[in-house]
Amino acid sequence: MEHVPPPAEELARLDRELAELDARRAQLLTRRAWLLAALRPPAPTAAPGWNPSAWGGPPAGRPGAPAQPWGYVPKQPSAPRSAQNVLLTLGGLLLTVAAVAFTLVSWGSMGIGGRSAVLAAVTLGALIAPAVLLRRGLAATAEALAALALVLTLLDVYAVHAVAAPDTDGLGFTAVASAVLAALWTAYGLALGKLRLPLPAAVVLAQWPLLFWAWAAGAPALVVGWALLATAALDGVIALRGRGPGVRVTACVGGSVMGFSALMVGLALSTTAAGPLGAVAPGALLLTAAAAALAGAWRAPKGFARTGGVVAGLAAVAAVGGVPAAALSDGWRVLAYLLCGFALAGVVRAGLPRDPARGVLAASGVVVAGALVWALPSLAAVLLGPVTLLSDVWAGSPEGFRSALGSTLPWSEPAAAPVALALVAGLLGSAYRWWPSVVRIAAPLGAREETPKPDAVSTAADAPGAAWTAPSGTGAPWYTAGGAGARRRPSGAALRGAAGAGALVLGWGALLLAGAVLDVPYAVAVAGETALVGGLLAAAVRGAGGGRGASALSVTALVAAVSGAVSVGLLSLASEGAAYAVFGALAVLFAWAAVRVEAEVPRAVFAVASVVWSTVLTGFAGRSLHLDPHEAAPLVLLVPALTVLLGARLRRNPVALPVELTGALGALVAVGLAVSDAPFLALVLALCGVLAAGAAVRPERRPVAGCLAVALFVLATWVRLAASEVSFPEAYTLPVTVPALVVGVARRRRDPEASSWTAYGPGLAATLLPSLAVAWTDTDWLRPLLLGVAALVITLLGARHRLQALLVLGGVVLALDGLHELAPYVAQVAGALPRWLPPALAGLLLLVVGATYEQRLRDARRLKDALGRMR
Fold it and tell me: CA-to-CA distance for 11 and 400, rounded, in angstroms?
């Protein structure tokens, strides 16, 4: 009979064979090309300098050499440029070292005439030699001597200051010298245009005159900032109009460093100003820097233009916002900068080029994001502060909201945090509401091929299914809903949905923070947060009400509702009445949301959350009745019982499984509560078995729930026997085992295909496992002997009749029983052996197993297959 593989396996095999055929075809084509080149007649003798391959002919090889494939170009020996560069570099370095040594060591042994002659001769020779070398085509040598001349001029400056003008101010002399050297090397580089070093060196030297002049004059920090800014502006001009990439890159780096330093000086002076008048002068510096950056961005390439726009926008915000911020307290200064950041959004109407305008708009976003980050710790304190109430549940209602948070955060500083969140939320909400107008205004900032059409993005973000499901037939993710799925960037609908989601979250956070800042009464805070959760649930249900899914706004509302429910639930733990009211309201609200929503994913989330809140309520009931944890465990099982009934009502509804699994977790919590008391644990396990048996009535739950029910009943029996200190469990287990085996035999006769685990497993486990547990603590020999004989018989019966349950259970019990009997002798022998012998034997065993690993693996697979064929 021919074996027909599954379609997936056959497809993978065909793909491998096709790949092998493609690889073999490529090899054959390469060999064919080489053979064609070998059979082609040799080309005529070429004239000196003629390259056959350049004209399409085959390469001429040496006599007797094998022919090469057509199109082969022999590798020509490259000019030894690397060796030449190494030699020139070493030579220039040695000359530089010699010049430094001469200036520092031998300078004082010569008279003034000799010194002047040596300086003039060596420097002049080093400056003239590159011009001569360039005329002879020795550019690399000329570059090396130009580098030597640069070092010599620096040494000359040092020598002049040390001998001719030792009493002059070092900083002032350095400022003048760097300006003179910058002018000299600029002229020298322009005169010898083929040299690449002089002009970048002149740019580097031009960075220091103004800075050292201000430093030497003892100027205030503001003047130093202006000097840095003027230097950065000069660098910007050079970067835009300089000759060669080396000059432009050097100027760009220098301008970035100097400009950043000037901005830091201005920002530090603006933020530490004593009043609005004191912030005007630093603001002027920052505004000038912004104008310079924007002017550079106007003519710069794309990437630099955007960066310049960002710098200009941030500098403008720091300049304008610093003046009113100096008149405000620390907690309110962020609002001044935030409002200026909002004002930057007006760049869309300023007529700037696209890239600088995008940069300024990005700066506005950075300012807004900074304000949100500043408010984030306060919001986190409000949401996570009630966690401290877990250590003292129902200690009593606090007076105000802040005292319930248990946070040491100084609430006077973040007083403006809710205002900042509300402002940003209002801006995003306005953008969401009037999105077509926003798109129309911002259209000039978009790329030509990416400019959205206002009439195409009116209400796409609100369409059901925009977040949980992709557009029909496209396979695109949710963020491309309403836009072209081929574009990697989010579409207009996705951006609008993000704006609405941000407005929702920030508005919710603003309300929470406002309650904490105002320190509203505890009851008002609890009621307000619960009402906010209800509003978020309503928004989530409304957004997902179309039946296919939920919008981005609905997803955000769902997440915020769950987070808010957890926060208000923790907050309510301070008072018993508040805890009952809040968790009862949460259970009802989430159940209502699960009933009203039509999308599967949010419905499952709402239903699961409702089950969790209801389970917490049952735990509160046990605490109110002053029950111990193990005594309250049966009460916790009320919710799992309701989930079983609800699952039977829902049947194959997709929400049924999450609800039942959540109820099972509640049952697990009940088991954990009852662990401290064995009789209650047996009771809880038996009740859990009843619930599992009730779930097993349904055919779709029977395979898992049936086995779980049997295991729970057996485990409850064992726990009950252990709690009663029964020394002969067989008297209780054998009356269960015998009828169970009889029922199993009848089941197998009626259905020969039934599994042996279903027919015989529960009955055998009911006696074998408790007996094994008692035998391990029994010092007598009779029980282990009888148990071993019974396990041996069961194992042989399983092997004879090919019954997996009998073979596995009997074999495991027999092995453990034998290990129990051999354990004292093994311990005695191990104590008599040298300590090095067990590790040596273990290592030898590992070596043997490793050497025969493949064979052991095949044996294990055969054993697995043999067990799998058993019933």
Answer: 69
The pLDDT-based confidence of 829 (bands split at 50, 70, 90) is: low
pLDDT tens digit sequence for 679-700: 889 999 999 999 998 888 888 8
Q: How far is CA 741 from CA 628, 736, 747, 760, in A?
A: 40, 9, 10, 6
CA separation for the pair 182, 208 (Å, rounded): 10
Query: Which has the minimum average pLDDT: 10-19, 140-149, 420-429?
Result: 140-149
* Confidence label for 170 from pLDDT (cuts 50, 70 and 90): confident
Distance CA 401, CA 637 (A): 34
Q: Would you tell me how many other CB atoms lie within 10 Å of the CB of residue 655? A: 19
pLDDT at 101: 53
Token pair of 81, please? 């440029």
> Whole-angstrom Cα distance, residue 635 to residue 619?
7
Q: Extract the tokens encoding 614.
A: 């209801």
Q: What is the DSSP string of 526-580?
A: HHHHHHHHHHHHHHHHHHTTTSS---HHHHHHHHHHHHHHHHHHHHGGG-HHHHH
Contacts of 451 (CB under 8 A, 6+ apart): 443
Per DSSP, the three-state class of 472 is coil
Query: Which residue has tokens 């779930």?
Result: 695
The residues facing 521 across adjacent strands are 400
For the segment 5-23, what is each residue's pLDDT rounded down to a tens digit? 777 778 878 888 888 888 8
Is the distance from CB of 578 to CB of 620 less than 8 angstroms?
no
